[in-house]
Design brief:
Number of domains of chain B: 1
Number of strands of chain A: 0
Number of helices of chain B: 13
Shape of chain B: globular
Strand content of chain B: under 5%
CATH topology of chain A: MetI-like fold
CATH architecture of chain B: Orthogonal Bundle
Structural class of chain B: mainly alpha
CATH superfamily of chain A: MetI-like
Shape of chain A: globular
Helix content of chain B: 55-70%
Number of strands of chain B: 2
Strand content of chain A: under 5%
CATH architecture of chain A: Orthogonal Bundle
Strand order of the largest sheet of chain B: 1-2
Distance between the termini of chain A: 20 Å
Oligomer: heterodimer
Radius of gyration of chain A: 24 Å
CATH superfamily of chain B: MetI-like
């Protein structure tokens, strides 16, 4: 973020404004954080406390009961967390490899039809896959990939590709020709140039692609809801929706809250740890 | 989304090398063909058929489209509801996002901290945020109920998720909480592009705060404003999770959005052909809205 020189003159003149600025900032911050913090804290409430009426705002005693139950296989949450992890990491791997190759092809070569093909890739940005789910289900059924985690992974990958290829193409075409020519002259092979020279130079693009491929597939709801039908294949958001309805009409809030927190943790960690890449991705249009 | 790509460096590369380029884009082209181009074309074909989940499809011409706009009142209502939702949420997010951006524009560490805090809810998924708010407003376990009863207030929350307007208020609150920080960050980058000297000059010329905002700041950050509106409007037109999970369409499908109705038609009634036709209508609507906005952007920036 760009910062301007602090206008100390203005601050000295209006200490009153500054006080209100702080008050407003703290009040607003609390409004933004209260839902997240209260939910996190409630995962440490005991089951008796969760059943109390009226409910308690903060836990009276802290227990790890809900977190322990999360790992109970019969709750199904650990299975769906694993499914989400498999789908998201698989999507990241596929997306990174396919879009790096495509970025290389589009960014470093010109051949007949490359312009048209790149346009087709970018067209994917205009068509949200929400509106394509009906025919997608038919296509995946035809390929024998409906109700299949790999099928979901492929769908997620395809819908990450337009943005990621766009990023990778720009990264590759920004590399000066001289670097490549010098390496080739010194006897480096094309594969060698790609691996040892290009890849290290496009790492920022790869990290940005990987972050958004992960987050978008980890958080995706509608396609998983449509494409997966067996409970043991559900991803975490779908499983949470099932728990939300509850068995026999009673919702196990302790378990549900813990599952929700689990579904938020990777997003928050990635945001806080890789903020620089995250924000640069936002500005190149990764999130809408 | 800006599509002005870095120009390709044309090298004196031999033509015989171009197969490497073709080979390296082929995995991407294969995937995009099978799971984007084919479904897109198939969708158009399906929309002209009576296509159920199992039986054989039968060609029925434009009947699905006629049905969408004549007998299927739920679809028309869902489009109207989606537009109402978009018309309400867009100015809330924009004005709120702009206000937050102006608020955190001040330099310094505290500003940076506030920015991060306001942005944080954006990083969690829409489904997770919906679950969180369902819990937050739940009358038997949620903090709102806990806080009000702690103050001895007997708040009746039973209607919140069951009636149309209270449900919509809960959804709008959730979406505002989640998305406003995103708009703030984008608008802040636009604000920071406005030269400080221009604002000082305007102030010296006697322009008040509002005058400076509407006559200097907003016109100068027009591209950012349009980009934010394009994201926000197309996102709202595609709203699904927040209604599917929070209001579940209650009461009587009155809070069903267009995507939600397409989901119901295709995947709970399994009328895939009809669902495809509704998807085509939705896609056309989205493309028209985006085209209008981009046209607006182009027309407006030509004036400068």
């Amino acid at each position: 973020m760009k910062t301007e020189p602090l206008s100390s003159r203005r601050l000295r003149r209006k200490p009153f404004v500054s006080v209100w600025w702080w008050v407003t900032g703290i009040v607003l911050s609390s409004l933004f954080l209260i839902p997240l913090v209260t939910m996190l804290l409630s995962t440490f409430k005991s089951r008796t406390e969760l059943g109390m009426k009226p409910p308690t705002l903060l836990p009276r005693e802290l227990t790890l009961d809900n977190w322990q139950r999360l790992f109970d296989p019969s709750a199904g949450l650990i299975q769906s967390t694993m499914n989400s992890a498999i789908v998201s990491l698989g999507t990241v791997a596929l997306t990174v490899v396919v879009s790096a190759l495509a970025g290389y092809g589009f960014g470093r070569f010109r051949f007949r039809g490359s312009g048209v093909l790149f346009f087709v890739v970018l067209a994917g940005l205009m068509v949200p896959f929400t509106v394509l789910l009906t025919p997608l289900l038919v296509v995946l059924r035809g390929m024998g990939l409906s109700n299949n985690l790999f099928g979901v992974m492929l769908v997620y990958t395809v819908y990450q590709l337009p943005f990621c290829i766009f990023i990778m193409r720009n990264a590759f075409s920004g590399i000066p020709n001289e670097i490549e020519e010098a390496a080739l002259m010194d006897g480096c092979t094309r594969v060698g140039v790609f691996r040892r020279i290009f890849i290290p130079l496009v790492i920022p693009g790869i990290v940005t692609s990987a972050i958004f491929a992960f987050l978008n597939s980890w958080n995706e709801f509608l396609a998983a809801l449509v494409l997966l039908t067996d409970q043991e294949k559900f991803t975490l958001p779908i499983m949470l929706a099932v728990r939300q309805v509850g068995k026999f009409g009673t919702v196990d809030w302790g378990l549900l809250d813990t599952g929700i927190v689990v579904s938020m943790i990777p997003c928050l960690l990635i945001f806080f740890l890789l903020q620089r890449y995250y924000v640069s991705g936002i500005f190149s249009g990764a999130a809408k | 989304m800006s599509v002005d790509a870095v120009p390709i460096r044309r090298s004196r590369r031999r033509r015989s090398d171009s197969w490497i380029g073709v080979a390296s884009i082929s995995p991407a082209i294969l995937l995009i063909t099978v799971l984007f181009v084919v479904p897109l074309v198939l969708m158009l074909w399906m929309s002209l058929n009576n296509w159920s989940f199992l039986g054989k499809p039968t060609f029925i011409g434009l009947e699905n489209y006629v049905r969408a706009f004549t007998t299927d009142t739920t679809f028309v209502n869902s489009i109207v509801f989606t537009l109402v939702y978009t018309v309400i949420i867009t100015p809330i997010l924009f004005v709120g996002g702009l206000a937050l951006a102006l608020f955190v524009k001040r330099p310094g560490k505290a500003s940076g901290l506030f920015r991060t805090i306001f942005f944080t809810p954006y990083v969690v998924g829409f489904a997770a945020a919906s679950f969180l708010w369902l819990w937050f407003v739940n009358d038997s376990v949620g903090p709102i109920s806990a806080a009000t009863s702690a103050f001895g207030i007997d708040l009746d929350q039973t209607s919140w998720l069951v009636e149309k307007w209270p449900g919509l208020v809960v959804v709008i609150t959730m979406v505002t909480w989640k998305v406003i920080g995103f708009q703030m960050i984008l608008l802040l980058s636009g604000l920071q592009g406005v030269p400080e000297e221009l604002l000082e000059a305007a102030a010296i010329d006697g322009a008040g705060w509002f005058r400076r905002l509407f006559s200097v700041i907003l016109p100068l950050m027009k591209p950012t404003v349009i980009m934010v509106l394009v994201f926000s409007i197309s996102g709202s037109l595609l709203a699904f999770e927040q209604f599917f999970l929070i209001t579940t369409g209650r009461p009587n499908n009155e809070t069903i959005t267009a995507v939600y109705w397409i989901y119901n038609v295709s995947f709970t009634k399994f009328e895939l052909g009809y669902g495809a036709a509704l998807s085509v209508v939705m896609l056309v609507l989205l493309l028209v809205v985006t085209a209008i906005q981009l046209k607006f952007l182009k027309g407006r920036s030509d004036e400068d």
